[in-house]
Amino acid sequence: MAKKLIFCLFLFFFMFGCSTDENNMDLNEGTDYYYETGNKFILSGHQKIKAGDFAGATEDFTKAIEELPEYAYAYGFRAFAKQQAGDLPGALIDINKAIEMKDSIGEFYIWRAGIYKDMGDDNSMNINFEKAAELKKTEAK
Questions:
Q1: Which CATH superfamily is domain 2-11+26-140 in?
Q2: pTM of model > 0.85
Q3: Among 40, 48, 25, which Cα is nearest to 115's?
Q4: Residue 74 near residue 62 (C-beta atoms within 8 A)
Q5: How far apart are CA 45 and CA 51, in angstroms?
């Protein structure tokens, strides 16, 4: 029963929470984050993710972090690039940092759930989906 609930929550977020590609990240928003921050590395990192250059994207997001160390999304984006490159421990470190910086962003918990899924840790995956659902519910009020 709990697995069905988690799966339904995941589908809800996937369909209504954000527009995503098959990798659970809205790559069309790269320009939005660029305009929000003015950081060229945010934009180029997203472009490299679209092109499948995850190592290059990781480098760009690292440069963005150097310029904007308080911008939690830069850590989240780098986590995503590392996850796609297969560096799951590195991705987990980065997404944990993003959550530590800004724990009210449901997307971060969804991204962390994806990392845990790739690591084969279904329990942690479910906990993160539940936290994302809780945040979404609070946001809707």
A1: Tetratricopeptide repeat domain (1.25.40.10)
A2: no
A3: 25
A4: no
A5: 10
